[in-house]
Design a protein that fits this description.
With 421 residues, the protein is of the alpha+beta class. It contains four helices and 25 strands. It has a six-stranded antiparallel β-barrel with strand order 2-14-18-16-15-19. Strands 7-6-4-12 form a four-stranded antiparallel beta sheet. A three-stranded antiparallel beta sheet has the order 3-13-9, with no helix packed on it.
Length: 421
């Protein structure tokens, strides 16, 4: 008996559905069931492009890893300021491991002391050597003078004696010349040796000074007050932190000037032709969704780039300069940016979801005498939510926000499922 009632109920429901479809078809495509509607209004239509972006300071000091000599070790972070901390001029921002540099300083100091000792020893040795050679030279001069006097007094001596004295004078002259030449040559040799040792001292001194200067560079201090914004370490994917390794010259921290802020927005290549520096924009902070800040387009990139490393989507970087200052505007915050492309006053527009399309054109479902009728319309500009109606509707018309024919089938299908239970 119950089974019979269930079958009869399903037949009745199907008969009602057929009747409803016939009514909808025979009454100018009208339907009498309840559907959510929208009342057509006239107002100012805003054509906008909305994209997300990130706040940054227009002016900022970049703190980079120091440029230190490669032979003085690597740059391992042992201390770094907390992200977002307020710092004063002279505060320590980053410190790097100093162990390798200190060892280099000790080695350079030892090399310097050894080189200085060698130089002092060489100077003392050369001084003694030159004094001996100068004494030998003076002795040769005396021998030469004596030989000259002997020759002067040999006028009354025999030819043999005179010849012997002349030979002694010639030998004395040769000895004197040789002593003078040896002294000059030795002085040149000594100067070259001293120059080499002085160079060695200079190199050791330079190495020590370089290590001392590098040691100072391993403590990076704030050149000006500001908010420390830690950069991302691309090797780890996170912001720099203790024990991270930095490359020479790599950006570590930004100290932004918070008096002038801007939003960097990535605009799809499809929309970039709509963007111009004369346009204004509203910016909302994701962290404070109830706040809105005025801005304007200050710069549009001339060249496109890939959105991500592995993406083929092309985007253009657009800068929005904020027209006001607020303590909530901090670098790194994610924002939603609505750029005003055009404003059309006193026009009709409707929600995009109320518009339907088929092979014959664009249409809406207009509410009429309790039902709905498919009415063709002509549309104009649209934004993310609304589209302008150029022709086909009037102010205060009520239109369906869903396809009422699909709603009818969904209701019937739901009833059939409930009946089958």
């Amino acid at each position: 008996m119950n089974k019979m009632k269930k079958v009869i109920g399903e037949i009745v429901i199907k008969i009602l559905l057929v009747c409803s479809l016939l009514i909808f078809s025979n009454c100018g495509n009208k339907s009498s069931f309840e559907v959510e509607t929208y009342t057509v209004k006239r107002g100012d239509f805003l054509h906008t492009v909305t994209e997300t972006g990130e706040l940054e300071a227009v002016n900022a000091l970049t703190i980079s890893a120091p440029m230190i000599p490669w032979d003085l070790g690597s740059l391992k972070i042992t201390q770094i300021v907390e992200d977002g901390d307020e710092v004063k001029e002279g505060d320590v921002l980053v410190e790097f491991d100093k162990a390798e540099v200190r060892r280099s300083m000790e080695n350079a100091q030892s090399e310097l002391e050894i080189a200085q000792a060698e130089l002092r020893k060489a100077i003392a040795s050369q001084k003694s050597q030159i004094e001996e050679m100068e004494a030998d030279l003076e002795k040769a001069r005396l021998q030469n003078r004596i030989a000259q006097l002997n020759l002067e007094l040999a006028g009354y001596k025999s030819a043999i004696e005179r010849k012997k004295i002349e030979l002694q004078l010639n030998n004395a002259i040769i000895d004197l010349q040789r002593a003078e030449e040896n002294l000059e040559n030795q002085k040149k040799i000594n100067r070259q040796e001293i120059n080499k040792l002085q160079l060695k001292v200079h190199q050791a001194q330079t190495k020590l000074e370089e290590a001392e200067a590098t040691l100072d560079k391993l403590t990076v201090k704030a050149p000006a007050p500001g908010i420390a914004i830690i950069e991302k370490n691309w090797d780890t994917g996170n912001k720099f932190q203790t024990d991270d390794q930095a490359w020479r010259g790599q950006r570590l921290i930004q100290l932004p000037d918070l008096s002038t802020m801007q939003a960097k927005v990535m605009i799809n290549e499809v929309d970039i032709s709509k963007i111009d520096t004369a346009q204004t924009a509203n910016i909302k902070l994701d962290a404070y969704p109830d706040t809105t800040f005025k801005s304007h387009v200050s710069d549009v990139a001339a060249l496109a780039r890939n959105k991500d490393r592995d993406s083929k989507v092309k985007i253009f970087d657009v800068m929005l300069l904020l027209d006001e200052r607020n303590d909530k505007l901090m670098p790194g915050l994610t924002v939603s940016c609505e750029i005003l492309i055009d404003k059309i006053a006193d026009t009709l527009f409707i929600p995009i979801e109320a518009v339907f399309k088929n092979e014959e054109g664009t249409y809406v479902y207009l509410k009429d005498n309790g039902g709905f009728e498919a009415v063709p319309i002509e549309t104009g500009q649209e934004n993310d939510d609304y589209v302008i109606v150029v022709k086909g509707l009037s102010e205060d018309d009520q239109i369906a926000l869903v396809d009422p024919t699909l709603e009818l089938y969904e209701k019937q299908d739901k009833k059939e499922k409930q009946g089958s239970l």
